Amino acid sequence: MAYNAETEKKIKKLIDEMTLEEKAGQLTLRGVGMVLGSDIPDYEDLRCGRVGLLPHYEDPKIANEIQRVAVEESRLGIPVIFCLDVIHGYRTAFPIPWSEAMSWESELAEKTASAAAKEATCAGVKLTFAPMVDIARNPCWGRICEGAGEDPYLGSKFAYARVKGFQGDDVSDPDKIAACAKHFCAYGFVEGGRDYNCVDMSESRLYNYVLPPFQACIDAGTKSIMAAFNDINGEPCTSSKWILTNLLRERMGFNGVVISDAFSVGALVKHGVAADEKEAAKNSLNAGMNVEMMTLAYRENLPELVKSGEVDGKVVDKLVSEVLRLKFELGLFDNPYVDVNKGKKVILCKEHKDLAQESAKRSIVLLENNGVLPLSKNKKIALIGPMADDQYEMVGEWCVTCRKEDCVTLKTVLEKIADVRYAKGCGFDDDESGFDEAVKAAKESDVIVYAIGQSQDLCGEARSRIKLVVSKTQEKLLKLLKKTGKPIVTIFVSGRPIVLNTVKEYSDAVLFSGALGSMAGYAYCDVIFGDYNPSAKLVSTFNQSYGLGGTGYYNALRVSRPACEDTKWCSKFFDAPIKPLYPFGYGLSYTNFEYEGLKTDKTEYKKDETVKISINVTNTGRFDGEEVVQVYVEDPVGSNVRPIKELKGYQKVFIKKGETKNMEFEIKISDCGYYNRNLEYVVESGKLMIGIGTNSEKYDSVEIFVK
Ligand code: NOJ
């Protein structure tokens, strides 16, 4: 443990010795002399203490040399922190976070985060800009792929697990790195799903839906938090004291380092809340922003701002102390260097690849199956489509250091197992030149595996899109293949929900996932042939139409005129159904699970009591399998309008064929409350419906009363 009783004295001593310029340096995250993408460190800046955190340099020898200059040649010898976006892997690529969340196994996410941390430390990385814990309901927003979907309960489980995975219990461990939970906050609610847009949201909504995953990160001990690009109700997160101090620190209890998003301090000028970078720096410092990323407003202006009294020196000292404390906690003062040989043993090691395969197969959702899956290995397979053999597409949206050559495609693995006729057939969005070849391959085979989807280039940051449909070319080829009369297994890969109506209509089975990473090909084959019986469930609602304006999610507030068929005077669209194609929590298995015998231990509860609720789940199908048993609570009458339903618990359980398991849950009545418009957490008396079932639309429920 690098932080001990002496640390605070050491921090104080350093603060006393530092010049204002050096203090500004500690609050600066910037590749010295760096323009984004350049790899040439400016050693003079390091010697002068003008930089506190740096983007990572892949070669550990360079990292050590940079660190040596900071530690041995700067006046105060303060080490730097190397930072990187390690979102779903460093070199071993794991499924994109959104897809991995579909496993509903946060233990798995903890393991993959831990493996990613271990690999990243090989290059000296000690802080990752992850996890991204933004609740997102609007698939137009391309960054939905980075989070855990639309639900705050599930999102909190994954948020907690990922922080634990990155940091462990002692972040000074050479295999561990600091987490930076992001983006604080409400970035997933940008208007219209348009990236970098504004957010207008009631505070109670913020508390009920947006903050829980951040609170989970704080509870897990996250060492840092990144402020979001957006404003909330007119206050940019980057310079809002309300958001960064009152809410984050005072109310939620965060005591680590807040880092700005890239360029966003300087961008306060464009945002229209600062006349120039000096004012931007002043506002962000006073709001409680420790570290400025990329722009140099702090570095250029902090000394003068303190001298003129516009920023109190004590405010700066507090911000700098927090950065220094993090450096002590990371163990950088004790051991600033990285073992340059570690990577040879750790990076892409068997253990990590096995984990990548495990997490990938557990993240694949079976959306449809008329019995064609699992395939038997002696079938002749036509493998068609642009996702079948594209290593780049397997990497995933946000894996900066992963390499496509390390990713194994479906074709590579399938050809080892079965008799395969491969034809790419089409591109993602165009190129019909391969149609004939694809139809020929299909005719010569027993079954078609059609691997298509949305290219990863269309998803992620700055990739907001409106038309979230299957590309015309892919749809056209699907229809042509259908005419061959051969059964079609469609594998659809995408980093966001897409309207899959046609895929559903023309396929005999549909598997869905995001980019699955290094071992994607193995994972698909595990599932296709039934070596692994799929168990994943959607974490976002998949609608029948795009353009629902972000309203198509499962835990929406009740309205006075709910959508219905028989009148137009209700909350709906005329040209698009409201009912989802696949609801939140949906996912099939090769076997069937039947639920019966739902009961609670009693019917009336006090507010401090716990409901014990149980149900029998029987595997009535032909395969052993796992089911995610989900608990939903409905609060039909509240003082404020309440969501139609909310996820309040779940367990993933393995049940052998023919076996029945009694599933027990404990739901605290105190967890069924909410923040009202006065921001008081209230647990109200009255009726609650508690349901247990297989997805957010299919569950049995019982009524209980809260006294
Ligand atoms: C901007 C993104 O919003 C953020 O998530 C990321 O960590 C930074 N760029 C640094 O790459």
User: Major β-sheet, in short?
Assistant: 6 strands, mixed
* Count of discrete alpha- or pi-helical segments spanning 4 or more residues: 21
Quote the average pLDDT.
Answer: 96
* Structural class based on helices, strands and sheet pairing: alpha/beta
Low-confidence parts:
32-37
Give me the oligomer status.
single chain
Distance between the termini: 48 Å
Task: Label the overall shape.
Answer: globular
Largest beta sheet: strand ordering: 11-16-15-14-12-13
How many β-strand runs? 26
User: Fraction of residues in helices?
Assistant: 25-40%
What percentage of amino acids are in beta strands? Answer: 15-25%
Q: Could you tell me the radius of gyration in angstroms?
A: 26 Å
Bound molecules: 1-deoxynojirimycin
SSE blueprint and pairings:
Elements: H1 7-17, H2 20-26, E1 28-29, H3 43-47, E2 53-55, H4 60-73, E3 81-84, H5 97-101, H6 106-121, E4 125-128, H7 152-167, E5 180-184, H8 203-219, E6 224-227, E7 231-232, E8 235-236, H9 241-251, E9 257-259, H10 268-271, H11 277-287, E10 292-293, H12 297-307, H13 313-329, H14 342-346, H15 350-361, E11 365-369, E12 380-384, H16 391-395, H17 410-417, E13 419-423, H18 435-443, E14 447-453, H19 472-482, E15 488-493, H20 501-506, E16 509-513, H21 520-528, E17 593-600, E18 604-605, E19 610-619, E20 625-634, E21 646-655, E22 660-668, E23 674-675, E24 681-682, E25 686-695, E26 698-706
Parallel strand pairs: 1-10, 2-3, 3-4, 5-6, 6-9, 12-13, 12-14, 14-15, 15-16, 18-26
Antiparallel strand pairs: 7-8, 11-16, 17-19, 19-22, 20-21, 20-25, 23-24, 25-26
The structure holds 1-deoxynojirimycin.
